[in-house]
Structure formats: structure tokens, C-alpha cells
């Protein structure tokens, strides 16, 4: 009740914790890599002194609504984004930290995904009937009435053929949990780069598939993401599209 909170838009809040965490993270990362830029949820884009250097993609508090309601499920997400030899932006390392559970998920491109030092692998569940899914439910100010109706149709399709669907409220942790095999698939539309940059790398390094709703490798650009273990990713896309 005593948290200092302001409103960014309808049902879109920012707490002092978001702002303070972002400030601390920026200060520490700038000490470590003075030339790099930032893409941060609250401040936005800050160009680095070296425009060719990688940039930090930071969500200082993913799961703000959970935090504001005293629900102990939120995380800090930090990723490194750079350009590959053909100029495309790629995520080369990332971490998601859940301070309540003291779980530190991290991944480096080509080197695997880990939870507190233990190697992660997505689940091996192959049957939809055994699979547990995560999702993000659109809310006031997020998506049009038509988008809300479409989500309900998608939910209807997945819930009736699976072991269940969870809405845990922190997309970065949903992706980390998918990498850890706790859930088998996840979908959400309209996410921001900082919500998913680290999580996408975690899932891929743990052997999972990530795409947009049309199976393209465009989830980071569009913020529309469908991800799952390789055995059910195709089937999940098919279900969501029909
Ligand atoms: C939110 C969370 C939530 C998702 C929302 C995001 P934030 O991020 O990841 O799970 O459903 O779409 O905006 O605002 O708490 O950093």
C-alpha cells in the first residue's frame, strides 16, 4: 500500500522500484562497459559512445503488476544485443533473475542455458494432452477489443487439448521456465524487446523453438511470440492459427 506508483497509461503502472532498479543497473553496467548503449523499459534508448558496440536490453522489473499487488513473482531481465556479420541484430547473452526464489537463469549464444549453474533443457513432452502452457492475457490498454476476442479463441483452442494454461504475469520468467522444462509452450502478443530478449536466448540455448505466429523468426521484432519444445511447437502454432 505504501509503494510509490504512477500510471504510464491505462492499467500500465510504474513503481519507484522499476525506476530505482533501472538506475542501479544502468550505473553498474556502464562501469563494466562504458561504451555500450542501452534499451531500457523506463528510460528508452540511450546510444553508446561507440555506435558499433553491443547494447544492453534491460527490463528492471518484469511483472510490475504482480509486484504492485504483492504477488511474489517478478524478475530482472538483461540481455546483450549486437550485430552479426550480415548486420542483423542478435542476442548473444542474457539473464533473468528471480530474486524471490533466488533463481538466476543465464545463457550465452552457443554455450547453453543454465539455472544457478545447472544446465537447462526444455521438456521432452510430446503429446499436447501432457503439455502445460503459459500465456499472457491482454488487459485494459493492451490490444483492441478484437485482439481480446482473438485471445479468448486461442485460449479455448489450447485449454481443451492440453493439461492446462497458466498466466503467471512475468513474460521473462515464463520463457525462463520454458527453458527449464517447467512449462512446455508459451504464447503472447504485443510484448516488448526487453520483456523477451534474454528469455528467447534462454529457450533457444535450452533446445526450444521460438517464432512469431506465422512461424517466422520475427518474435523479437514484432513482440508476438510462440515458443515451445520442438515436439509441440508446430502443433501449437497450428492450434493458435486455426
Ligand atoms: C509485463 C509482463 C506480463 C506480460 C505483459 C508485460 P512488465 O511486463 O511481462 O507477463 O503479460 O505483457 O508488459 O510491464 O511487468 O515489465
Instruction: Give the oligomeric state.
Output: single chain
Straight-line N-to-C gap: 43 Å
In DSSP terms (H or I, runs of 4 or more residues), the helix count works out at: 7
The stretches of 5 or more residues where confidence is low (pLDDT under 50) are none
The amount of helix comes to 25-40%
The set of bound ligands, ions and cofactors reads:
D-MYO-inositol-1-phosphate
Structural class: alpha+beta
Which word captures the global form? globular
Main β-sheet description: 8 strands, mixed
Strand content bin: 25-35%
Order of helices and strands: EEHEEEHEEEEEEHEHEHEHEH
What do these coordinates show?
With 242 residues, this protein is an alpha+beta fold. The protein is 30% helix and 30% strand. The protein has an 8-stranded mixed sheet. It has a 5-stranded mixed sheet with strand order 12-11-13-15-14, sandwiched between helices. Strands 1-2 form a two-stranded antiparallel sheet. A hairpin with a 5-residue loop joins strand 6 (75-83) and strand 7. Helix 3 crosses helix 7 (233-241) and helix 4 (171-179) packs parallel to helix 5 (193-205). The longest helix has 17 residues, at 16-32. It is globular and about 50 Å long. The model has no long low-confidence stretch (mean pLDDT 94). The chain binds D-MYO-inositol-1-phosphate. Residues 41, 59, 62-64, 136, 169-171, 188, 191, 195 line the site of D-MYO-inositol-1-phosphate.
Amino acid at each position: 500500500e505504501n509503494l510509490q506508483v504512477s500510471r504510464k497509461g491505462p492499467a500500465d503502472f510504474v513503481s519507484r522500484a522499476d525506476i530505482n532498479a533501472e538506475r542501479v543497473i544502468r550505473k553498474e553496467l556502464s562501469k563494466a562497459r562504458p561504451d555500450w548503449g542501452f534499451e531500457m523499459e523506463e528510460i528508452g534508448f540511450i546510444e553508446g559512445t561507440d555506435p558499433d558496440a553491443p547494447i544492453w536490453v534491460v527490463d528492471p522489473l518484469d511483472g510490475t503488476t504482480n509486484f504492485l499487488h504483492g504477488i511474489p513473482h517478478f524478475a530482472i531481465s538483461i540481455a546483450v544485443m549486437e550485430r552479426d556479420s550480415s548486420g542483423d541484430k542478435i542476442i548473444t547473452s542474457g539473464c533473468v533473475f528471480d530474486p524471490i526464489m533466488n533463481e538466476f537463469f543465464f545463457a550465452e549464444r552457443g554455450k547453453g542455458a543454465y539455472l544457478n549453474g545447472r544446465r537447462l533443457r526444455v521438456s521432452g513432452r510430446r503429446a499436447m494432452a501432457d503439455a502445460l502452457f503459459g500465456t499472457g492475457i491482454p488487459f485494459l490498454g493492451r490490444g483492441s477489443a478484437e485482439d481480446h476476442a482473438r485471445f479468448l479463441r486461442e485460449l479455448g483452442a489450447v485449454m481443451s487439448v492440453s493439461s492446462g494454461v497458466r498466466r503467471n504475469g512475468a513474460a521473462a520468467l515464463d520463457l525462463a521456465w520454458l527453458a527449464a522444462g517447467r512449462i512446455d509452450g508459451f504464447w503472447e502478443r504485443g510484448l516488448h524487446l526487453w520483456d523477451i530478449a534474454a528469455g528467447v536466448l534462454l529457450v533457444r540455448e535450452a533446445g526450444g523453438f521460438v517464432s512469431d505466429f506465422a512461424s517466422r523468426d520475427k518474435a523479437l521484432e514484432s513482440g508476438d511470440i510462440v515458443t515451445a519444445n520442438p515436439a509441440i511447437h508446430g502443433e501449437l502454432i497450428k492450434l493458435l492459427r486455426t
